[in-house]
Write a structure and sequence with these properties.
Strands 1, 2, 3, 4, 5, 6, 7, 8 and 9 form a 9-stranded mixed beta sheet that branches. A 6-stranded mixed beta sheet has the order 14-13-10-11-12-15, sandwiched between helices. The chain folds into 2 domains: 191 residues, VC0802-like; 209 residues, Rossmann fold (3-Layer(aba) Sandwich). The chain is an alpha/beta fold.
Length: 427
């Protein structure tokens, strides 16, 4: 052992640090056994609504209830542009609740906060110091920010900041105040019934609650763009269903499962999703055998839209969603989009239409769909791909080529044989 003193010292030091850390952790959590925490969600766009604001708040709380129900019992209430989620049972995983709530559209900011008595300022300060101590002891600078929603509170915000700041410096050594760039900000919010303490907000999902803007059908391929398009429309309050086309034996079961996994990745953001899987082999073979090769892709997309519209109309959906981006591929040129729009009977939303691939990829990584999207499984859009697709098709020419063959029986058969699978939010 004496031969390697330089190797042993770090290990001993590390052991000592770990021992002290766990001793502190036990002491800290013992002192905080009786604390009550709450999740605070600060309304964003909802707060700007007029007379129907309450409708949006109720939809938001309904979505939160559905998302958090598997974790236990919570109390939900709204007040002063804030949604409060308070656990009503012991042993609830508040970290998981926080993670799930942060993905529910409707709030711009989220935080975990300590609930304390605003009437007893000494207790408020003591609770705030203990609650924020782990972060404060790792910092060198801090500041206190106070907000009084209760204007009858006897202390004004600057007084609260000054008094609590002084007590924090007395309780924790080595801290100094930096009001411009602090490492930790201790926030005190004096509201109607209680005071809330936290160390800062984190970004929430934003947008408006899913279900407040109608229902639409997402044309979900296995690529990067369409899941992002679904996410972006859900953020605007649209309740989405998804439709996918398979062409066995040209596409494999793994390709279908890939798209189902993509759909599952969307559920934390979009809620439960009805997933429709359409058998498309006969239609694609008919296109190959009866239509000009350079128009294969355009005619295929027109028929896909027709099938999706029929299912959407049957289910009471009001619009379509695609992941098209202008100029990205031959079927997404201005001319091609005009040809596909010619068969639309309902609005077609294209939320990524003006985005480039790098911008779309950033969002795909955020919602955790990117890695699945780039898995190298074929989809039906790559079947019978023309060598030289027409990038400037003429609508009349495309319509004439499509009408040269009677696709109606095949369309009706595809609609009749469509399979429905309900993708539930993971529990």
């Amino acid at each position: 052992m004496t031969k390697f003193p330089n190797m042993l010292l770090p290990n001993k030091l590390l052991y000592a640090i770990i021992k002290v850390y766990f001793a502190y952790e036990r002491k800290y959590y013992k002192s905080m056994e009786n604390i009550k925490e709450v999740i605070l969600l600060k309304e964003g766009e909802i707060a700007l609504k007029g007379l129907n604001r309450r409708t949006f708040e109720e939809a938001f709380i309904k979505n939160l209830r559905h998302r958090l129900k598997p974790l236990g019992k919570f109390d939900y209430r709204s007040s002063q542009s804030m949604i409060y989620i308070e656990p009503m049972e012991d042993g609830i995983d508040l970290d998981e609740a926080f993670s799930r709530a942060s993905k529910v559209f409707g709030a711009n900011a989220i935080c975990r906060a300590l609930i304390t008595d605003k009437e007893d300022f000494d207790k408020l300060c003591a609770d705030a110091i203990e609650y924020c101590r782990p972060e404060l002891e790792l910092a060198r600078t801090f500041k206190v920010e106070a907000k009084r929603s209760d204007k009858h509170y006897p202390m004004k915000s600057p007084e609260i900041c000054r008094e609590l700041g002084g007590r924090i410096m007395d309780a924790i050594d080595g801290l100094s105040v930096d009001v411009h760039n602090p490492q930790v900000t201790v926030n005190i919010e004096i509201r109607d019934h209680n005071a809330y303490v936290h160390t800062g907000n984190k970004p929430a999902a934003g947008g408006i609650p899913v279900g407040t803007s109608g229902r639409a059908m997402l044309m979900l391929s296995g690529g990067i763009d369409s899941p992002v398009a679904g996410y972006m429309m859900a953020k605007r309050g649209v309740k989405i269903s998804a439709i996918h086309y398979v062409s066995p034996p040209y596409t494999s079961e793994r390709a279908r499962l890939k798209v189902e996994r993509l759909c599952e990745k969307l559920t934390p953001w979009c809620g439960d999703i009805d997933f429709y899987c359409v058998p498309f082999t006969k239609i694609q073979e008919a296109i190959r055998d009866n239509c000009p090769e350079e128009l294969f892709t355009i005619i295929m997309r027109r028929l896909m839209i027709e099938i999706a519209q029929r299912i959407a109309e049957e289910k009471g959906l009001q619009a379509m969603i695609t992941g098209e981006s202008v100029g990205q591929v031959a079927s997404q040129t201005m001319g091609a989009i005009c040809c596909t729009d010619a068969v639309c009977r309902m609005p077609m939303f294209r939320p990524v239409i003006g985005m480039d691939k790098s911008e779309i990829t950033i969002i795909a990584r955020k919602i955790d769909t990117f890695d699945i999207s780039i898995e190298p499984y074929e989809d039906c859009c790559t079947v019978f791909t023309p060598k030289h697709p027409k990038t400037k098709p003429i609508p009349a020419e495309v319509a004439a080529a499509q009408e040269a063959f009677d696709f109606e029986p095949l369309i009706a058969e595809a609609v009749a044989n469509t399979e429905l699978k309900q993708m539930k939010i993971d529990v």
